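Suppose you are handed a protein chain with no further information: no name, no annotation, nothing but its sequence. What can you learn? This example shows the usual starting point.
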Amino acid sequence: MSKILWTIQALLAALFLFAGGMKLALPAAELAKQASLPVEFLRFIGVCEVLGALGMVLPGLFKVRRELTSLAAVGLVAIMVGATVISASPVPAVVGALAAVVAWGRRTARVPAVVAQ
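A reasonable first move is to predict its three-dimensional structure. Written in structure tokens, the prediction is:
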């Protein structure tokens, strides 16, 4: 299961790095032509996508604060829910579902066992 999650994480990280990077790199006029949302909001989403992409892989690679991977995936799910509503396309829904799989698979909050006294 770990190899499958890592594969999904790597693909999602590449996708979100590209998508977020494009939102940050495109000139404002070009970005405004592509979407009906304010340019400042699209830039904010771009920053969130880049940070989410980094959060998908860096904690696991450096073995530090691995619970952040699940949180990054949840944040990307939220972005994809908004993208699905706005675009009415199945592609963001599939990407969001994959991010949800990572969030569920990498969750570290476990229910503590009851200790007998």
